[in-house]
């Protein structure tokens, strides 16, 4: 199968900023949504939705005709994209994907099934021991029959917490799983922060503002060391870049 036409890897700064701030289209409410988050260092702005969709279908094991009704929507502000499907049988095919081949390069992705609208999120601490999301959900449903649990998954390899979604007007105080009674805590989304520029709202792998500043001043990304060590001599273009970053607050730790 021929690969879809690609776009230039260097997008115009104005076009890229407009794409990140644009209003996202509303996906079908009744569809299942599978969210894909790339590994650190992967910028989805370098790929178009046609490329992403083709890579997802190719790695899902589904025939292109079967997946023809499924949709892809990219959220550049969060550096994620969502696959929307009305078929429950195809959800597992998408959720099991761990890497996508884009422009001949294999890139790592973390895929998870998004909870339904209106679901309440709760955290169960120290409850995960390597189980898959399917095993967690089955275990919770089996011993908590009075609760409508729609999703359960781990919070990442570095955490033992389980994120659980309930369809209820109020959260349950506790749940049982694996023979242990756990308290359920309200889930508060973590504020994303960049360790490079000390700003909130984006992660370290989403340094679009800093990268754009480098390109406008015609400087390579390796000049970041000059920003960290202002005592070193700077080129005229670099001095203007330092002033720009100071004025915009991107480098607030100098």
From TrEMBL:
Domain of life: Eukaryota
Protein name as catalogued: Uncharacterized protein
Species of the source: Rhipicephalus microplus (Cattle tick)
């Amino acid at each position: 199968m021929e690969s879809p036409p690609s776009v230039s890897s260097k997008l115009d700064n104005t076009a890229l900023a407009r794409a990140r701030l644009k209003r996202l289209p509303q996906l079908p409410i009744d569809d299942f949504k599978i969210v894909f988050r790339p590994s650190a260092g992967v910028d989805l702005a370098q790929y178009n939705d046609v490329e992403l969709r083709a890579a997802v279908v190719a790695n899902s094991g589904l025939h292109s005709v079967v997946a023809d009704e499924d949709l892809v929507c990219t959220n550049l502000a969060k550096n994620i994209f969502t696959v929307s499907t009305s078929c429950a049988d195809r959800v597992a095919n998408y959720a099991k994907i761990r890497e996508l081949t884009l422009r001949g390069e294999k890139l790592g992705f973390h895929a998870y099934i998004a909870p339904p609208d209106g679901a309440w999120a709760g955290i169960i601490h120290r409850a995960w021991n390597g189980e898959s999301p399917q095993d967690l959900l089955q275990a919770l449903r089996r011993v908590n029959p009075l609760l409508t649990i729609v999703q359960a998954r781990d919070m990442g390899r570095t955490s033992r917490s389980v994120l659980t979604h309930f369809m209820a007007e109020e959260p349950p105080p506790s749940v049982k799983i694996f023979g242990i009674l756990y308290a359920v805590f309200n889930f508060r989304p973590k504020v994303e922060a960049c360790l490079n520029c000390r700003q909130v709202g984006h992660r370290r792998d989403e340094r679009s503002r800093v990268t754009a500043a480098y390109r406008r001043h015609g400087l390579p990304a390796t000049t970041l060391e000059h920003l960290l060590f202002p005592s070193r001599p700077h080129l005229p273009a670099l001095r203007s870049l330092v002033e720009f970053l100071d004025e915009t607050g991107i480098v607030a730790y100098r």
